Amino acid sequence: MSSGGAAARSGEGSPGEGAFVPSALGTREHWDAVYERELQTFQEYGDTGEIWFGEESMNRLIRWMQKHKIPLDASVLDIGTGNGVFLVELAKFGFSNITGIDYSPSAIQLSGSIIEKEGLSNIKLKVEDFLDLSTKLSGFHICIDKGTFDAISLNPDNAIEKRKQYVKSLSRVLKVKGFFLITSCNWTKEELLNEFSEGFELFEELPTPKFSFGGRSGNSVAALVFQKMSSGEAAESSSSLLSSPIVYRN
Ligand SMILES: C[S@@+](CC[C@H](N)C(=O)[O-])C[C@H]1O[C@@H](n2cnc3c(N)ncnc32)[C@H](O)[C@@H]1O
Protein backbone atom coordinates (compact mmCIF):
# COMPACT_ATOMS: atom_id res chain seq x y z
CA MET A 1 0.00 0.00 0.00
CA SER A 2 1.13 3.52 -0.66
CA SER A 3 -0.75 6.77 -0.84
CA GLY A 4 -0.94 6.23 -4.58
CA GLY A 5 -1.36 2.47 -4.91
CA ALA A 6 -3.11 -0.55 -3.54
CA ALA A 7 -1.77 -3.64 -1.80
CA ALA A 8 -1.42 -6.89 -3.73
CA ARG A 9 -4.25 -9.40 -3.48
CA SER A 10 -3.28 -12.98 -2.81
CA GLY A 11 -6.09 -14.46 -4.90
CA GLU A 12 -6.69 -16.89 -2.06
CA GLY A 13 -9.21 -16.99 0.74
CA SER A 14 -12.90 -17.59 0.69
CA PRO A 15 -15.31 -14.98 -0.67
CA GLY A 16 -15.42 -11.80 1.32
CA GLU A 17 -12.31 -12.63 3.38
CA GLY A 18 -10.28 -9.89 1.72
CA ALA A 19 -7.13 -11.85 1.02
CA PHE A 20 -4.26 -9.37 0.78
CA VAL A 21 -0.67 -10.46 0.74
CA PRO A 22 0.43 -9.78 4.35
CA SER A 23 2.98 -7.01 4.51
CA ALA A 24 5.26 -5.18 6.91
CA LEU A 25 2.93 -2.20 6.39
CA GLY A 26 0.51 -3.97 8.71
CA THR A 27 2.93 -3.99 11.65
CA ARG A 28 3.67 -1.54 14.42
CA GLU A 29 7.43 -2.00 13.87
CA HIS A 30 7.04 -0.64 10.35
CA TRP A 31 5.15 2.47 11.44
CA ASP A 32 7.49 3.07 14.38
CA ALA A 33 10.44 3.07 11.96
CA VAL A 34 8.59 5.34 9.50
CA TYR A 35 7.68 7.95 12.10
CA GLU A 36 11.04 7.82 13.89
CA ARG A 37 12.57 8.75 10.53
CA GLU A 38 9.93 11.40 9.84
CA LEU A 39 10.36 12.86 13.32
CA GLN A 40 14.09 13.23 12.71
CA THR A 41 13.45 14.84 9.31
CA PHE A 42 10.95 17.23 10.90
CA GLN A 43 13.44 18.18 13.63
CA GLU A 44 16.23 18.75 11.09
CA TYR A 45 14.37 20.33 8.17
CA GLY A 46 10.84 21.14 9.39
CA ASP A 47 9.35 18.79 6.76
CA THR A 48 6.05 17.32 8.09
CA GLY A 49 6.29 14.19 5.90
CA GLU A 50 3.80 12.26 3.84
CA ILE A 51 0.09 13.14 3.71
CA TRP A 52 -1.67 9.90 2.85
CA PHE A 53 -3.85 10.27 -0.25
CA GLY A 54 -2.65 13.89 -0.60
CA GLU A 55 -4.02 17.29 0.38
CA GLU A 56 -7.26 16.76 -1.53
CA SER A 57 -8.18 13.83 0.72
CA MET A 58 -8.25 16.22 3.70
CA ASN A 59 -10.13 18.95 1.82
CA ARG A 60 -12.72 16.40 0.67
CA LEU A 61 -13.50 15.43 4.29
CA ILE A 62 -13.60 19.00 5.53
CA ARG A 63 -15.91 19.99 2.64
CA TRP A 64 -18.25 17.17 3.63
CA MET A 65 -18.28 18.33 7.27
CA GLN A 66 -18.97 21.87 6.09
CA LYS A 67 -21.75 20.78 3.72
CA HIS A 68 -23.48 18.85 6.50
CA LYS A 69 -23.00 21.68 8.99
CA ILE A 70 -21.16 19.53 11.51
CA PRO A 71 -20.88 21.84 14.55
CA LEU A 72 -17.36 23.08 15.23
CA ASP A 73 -17.55 21.71 18.78
CA ALA A 74 -18.42 18.18 17.58
CA SER A 75 -16.00 15.61 19.01
CA VAL A 76 -13.76 14.23 16.26
CA LEU A 77 -11.43 11.22 16.52
CA ASP A 78 -8.69 10.64 13.94
CA ILE A 79 -7.90 6.91 14.05
CA GLY A 80 -4.21 6.30 13.25
CA THR A 81 -3.41 9.97 12.90
CA GLY A 82 0.22 9.47 11.73
CA ASN A 83 1.88 12.89 11.56
CA GLY A 84 -1.36 14.55 12.73
CA VAL A 85 -1.52 16.93 9.76
CA PHE A 86 -5.25 16.31 9.38
CA LEU A 87 -5.74 17.36 13.02
CA VAL A 88 -3.95 20.60 12.19
CA GLU A 89 -6.26 21.20 9.22
CA LEU A 90 -9.35 20.53 11.36
CA ALA A 91 -8.14 22.92 14.06
CA LYS A 92 -7.33 25.63 11.50
CA PHE A 93 -10.85 25.19 10.10
CA GLY A 94 -12.21 25.86 13.58
CA PHE A 95 -12.94 22.43 15.08
CA SER A 96 -12.28 22.67 18.79
CA ASN A 97 -12.79 19.14 20.15
CA ILE A 98 -10.28 16.98 18.28
CA THR A 99 -8.43 13.84 19.34
CA GLY A 100 -5.76 11.94 17.45
CA ILE A 101 -4.67 8.43 18.35
CA ASP A 102 -1.94 6.23 16.95
CA TYR A 103 -0.27 3.07 18.22
CA SER A 104 3.15 4.38 17.24
CA PRO A 105 4.67 6.57 19.98
CA SER A 106 6.90 8.26 17.36
CA ALA A 107 3.81 9.22 15.33
CA ILE A 108 2.27 10.85 18.40
CA GLN A 109 5.56 12.60 19.20
CA LEU A 110 5.76 13.89 15.61
CA SER A 111 2.09 15.04 15.70
CA GLY A 112 2.79 16.84 18.99
CA SER A 113 5.83 18.63 17.52
CA ILE A 114 3.93 19.69 14.38
CA ILE A 115 0.93 20.91 16.41
CA GLU A 116 3.25 22.85 18.72
CA LYS A 117 5.08 24.46 15.79
CA GLU A 118 1.71 25.51 14.34
CA GLY A 119 0.96 27.20 17.67
CA LEU A 120 -2.25 25.20 18.11
CA SER A 121 -3.60 24.09 21.45
CA ASN A 122 -6.63 22.04 22.46
CA ILE A 123 -5.77 19.03 20.31
CA LYS A 124 -5.71 15.82 22.33
CA LEU A 125 -3.15 13.18 21.37
CA LYS A 126 -2.82 9.65 22.71
CA VAL A 127 -0.74 6.58 22.04
CA GLU A 128 -3.51 4.00 21.61
CA ASP A 129 -3.87 0.73 19.77
CA PHE A 130 -7.34 1.02 18.22
CA LEU A 131 -7.66 -2.76 18.36
CA ASP A 132 -6.95 -2.86 22.08
CA LEU A 133 -8.25 0.38 23.51
CA SER A 134 -6.92 0.86 27.01
CA THR A 135 -8.81 3.95 28.05
CA LYS A 136 -12.40 5.04 28.05
CA LEU A 137 -12.38 6.63 24.59
CA SER A 138 -16.04 6.93 23.64
CA GLY A 139 -18.86 9.23 22.63
CA PHE A 140 -17.34 10.65 19.44
CA HIS A 141 -19.60 12.38 16.92
CA ILE A 142 -17.17 11.82 14.06
CA CYS A 143 -14.47 9.20 13.47
CA ILE A 144 -11.99 9.57 10.63
CA ASP A 145 -9.84 6.87 9.05
CA LYS A 146 -7.38 7.70 6.31
CA GLY A 147 -5.30 4.61 5.50
CA THR A 148 -5.44 2.97 8.94
CA PHE A 149 -7.99 0.26 8.14
CA ASP A 150 -5.90 -0.38 5.00
CA ALA A 151 -2.77 -0.84 7.12
CA ILE A 152 -4.57 -3.11 9.61
CA SER A 153 -5.84 -5.26 6.72
CA LEU A 154 -2.22 -6.07 5.80
CA ASN A 155 -1.30 -7.41 9.24
CA PRO A 156 0.56 -10.72 8.80
CA ASP A 157 -1.01 -12.05 12.00
CA ASN A 158 -4.72 -12.87 11.48
CA ALA A 159 -5.87 -9.80 9.58
CA ILE A 160 -9.45 -11.11 9.36
CA GLU A 161 -9.78 -11.14 13.16
CA LYS A 162 -8.13 -7.70 13.35
CA ARG A 163 -10.66 -6.25 10.89
CA LYS A 164 -13.50 -7.64 13.01
CA GLN A 165 -11.94 -6.10 16.12
CA TYR A 166 -11.68 -2.78 14.27
CA VAL A 167 -15.45 -2.78 13.66
CA LYS A 168 -16.06 -3.58 17.35
CA SER A 169 -13.76 -0.75 18.49
CA LEU A 170 -15.45 1.63 16.08
CA SER A 171 -18.88 0.71 17.49
CA ARG A 172 -17.52 1.39 20.95
CA VAL A 173 -16.08 4.84 20.31
CA LEU A 174 -18.72 6.31 17.97
CA LYS A 175 -22.05 7.68 19.20
CA VAL A 176 -25.30 6.34 17.74
CA LYS A 177 -26.01 8.42 14.60
CA GLY A 178 -22.35 9.49 14.60
CA PHE A 179 -20.44 9.48 11.30
CA PHE A 180 -17.45 7.40 10.22
CA LEU A 181 -15.47 8.81 7.28
CA ILE A 182 -13.13 6.27 5.71
CA THR A 183 -10.66 6.73 2.86
CA SER A 184 -9.13 3.53 1.47
CA CYS A 185 -6.99 2.48 -1.45
CA ASN A 186 -7.19 -1.25 -0.76
CA TRP A 187 -10.92 -1.76 -0.53
CA THR A 188 -13.66 -0.97 -3.03
CA LYS A 189 -16.93 0.66 -2.06
CA GLU A 190 -18.73 -2.71 -2.20
CA GLU A 191 -16.11 -4.38 -0.02
CA LEU A 192 -16.25 -1.60 2.57
CA LEU A 193 -20.04 -1.89 2.65
CA ASN A 194 -19.56 -5.54 3.44
CA GLU A 195 -16.90 -4.92 6.12
CA PHE A 196 -19.03 -2.35 7.95
CA SER A 197 -22.43 -3.94 7.36
CA GLU A 198 -22.97 -4.71 11.04
CA GLY A 199 -24.19 -1.64 12.87
CA PHE A 200 -23.34 0.91 10.18
CA GLU A 201 -25.11 2.12 7.07
CA LEU A 202 -23.80 4.01 4.07
CA PHE A 203 -24.65 7.68 4.32
CA GLU A 204 -22.76 9.03 1.31
CA GLU A 205 -20.03 8.17 -1.16
CA LEU A 206 -17.55 11.00 -1.72
CA PRO A 207 -16.28 11.51 -5.26
CA THR A 208 -12.63 10.58 -5.73
CA PRO A 209 -10.40 10.82 -8.81
CA LYS A 210 -10.70 7.91 -11.26
CA PHE A 211 -7.88 6.20 -13.09
CA SER A 212 -7.79 3.99 -16.18
CA PHE A 213 -5.75 0.85 -16.52
CA GLY A 214 -5.82 -1.70 -19.33
CA GLY A 215 -8.82 -0.01 -20.88
CA ARG A 216 -10.86 -0.29 -17.68
CA SER A 217 -11.60 2.67 -15.51
CA GLY A 218 -12.37 2.60 -11.81
CA ASN A 219 -11.69 4.44 -8.58
CA SER A 220 -8.23 4.09 -7.11
CA VAL A 221 -9.43 5.44 -3.78
CA ALA A 222 -12.78 4.91 -2.06
CA ALA A 223 -14.07 7.58 0.32
CA LEU A 224 -17.27 6.68 2.15
CA VAL A 225 -19.30 8.12 4.99
CA PHE A 226 -21.09 5.62 7.23
CA GLN A 227 -23.56 6.40 9.98
CA LYS A 228 -23.82 4.31 13.12
CA MET A 229 -27.27 2.81 13.54
CA SER A 230 -29.08 2.37 16.81
CA SER A 231 -29.26 -1.24 18.01
CA GLY A 232 -32.94 -1.49 16.92
CA GLU A 233 -32.13 -0.30 13.40
CA ALA A 234 -29.12 -2.63 13.24
CA ALA A 235 -31.29 -5.66 14.14
CA GLU A 236 -33.85 -4.70 11.46
CA SER A 237 -31.19 -4.25 8.81
CA SER A 238 -29.38 -7.49 9.65
CA SER A 239 -32.56 -9.43 8.83
CA SER A 240 -32.86 -7.55 5.52
CA LEU A 241 -29.16 -8.21 4.84
CA LEU A 242 -29.98 -11.88 4.37
CA SER A 243 -31.45 -11.00 1.01
CA SER A 244 -28.65 -8.66 -0.08
CA PRO A 245 -25.95 -9.81 -2.51
CA ILE A 246 -22.68 -11.22 -1.15
CA VAL A 247 -19.49 -9.70 -2.55
CA TYR A 248 -17.27 -12.36 -4.12
CA ARG A 249 -13.68 -11.87 -5.04
CA ASN A 250 -11.60 -13.76 -7.64
C1 LIG B 1 -1.28 4.79 6.16
S1 LIG B 1 -0.86 5.57 7.66
C2 LIG B 1 -2.03 6.92 7.64
C3 LIG B 1 -1.68 8.03 8.59
C4 LIG B 1 -2.69 9.20 8.60
N1 LIG B 1 -4.03 8.77 8.89
C5 LIG B 1 -2.67 9.97 7.30
O1 LIG B 1 -3.71 10.04 6.62
O2 LIG B 1 -1.62 10.54 6.94
C6 LIG B 1 -1.60 4.42 8.83
C7 LIG B 1 -1.51 4.86 10.27
O3 LIG B 1 -2.25 3.97 11.09
C8 LIG B 1 -1.53 3.72 12.28
N2 LIG B 1 -2.05 2.45 12.82
C9 LIG B 1 -2.02 1.23 12.23
N3 LIG B 1 -2.61 0.32 13.02
C10 LIG B 1 -3.05 0.97 14.13
C11 LIG B 1 -3.72 0.55 15.31
N4 LIG B 1 -4.07 -0.73 15.52
N5 LIG B 1 -4.02 1.48 16.24
C12 LIG B 1 -3.66 2.79 16.06
N6 LIG B 1 -3.00 3.23 14.96
C13 LIG B 1 -2.69 2.33 14.01
C14 LIG B 1 -0.08 3.72 11.82
O4 LIG B 1 0.84 3.90 12.88
C15 LIG B 1 -0.08 4.87 10.82
O5 LIG B 1 0.13 6.09 11.46
Automatic annotation (TrEMBL):
One of its GO terms (molecular function) is protein-lysine N-methyltransferase activity. It catalyses: L-lysyl-[protein] + 3 S-adenosyl-L-methionine = N(6),N(6),N(6)-trimethyl-L-lysyl-[protein] + 3 S-adenosyl-L-homocysteine + 3 H(+). GO terms for cellular component: cytoplasm; nucleus. It is found in: Cytoplasm; Nucleus. Keywords: Cytoplasm, Methyltransferase, Nucleus, S-adenosyl-L-methionine, Transferase. GO terms for biological process: methylation. Residues 1-22 are annotated as: Disordered. InterPro entries: Efm4/METTL10 (IPR026635), Methyltranfer_dom (IPR025714), SAM-dependent_MTases_sf (IPR029063). Its main location: cytoplasm. It holds the Pfam family Methyltransf_31. Residues 74-204 form the Methyltransferase domain. It is an enzyme of class 2 (transferase). Protein-lysine methyltransferase that selectively catalyzes the trimethylation of EEF1A at 'Lys-318'. Belongs to the class I-like SAM-binding methyltransferase superfamily. EFM4 family. This is EEF1A lysine methyltransferase 2. It comes from Carlito syrichta.
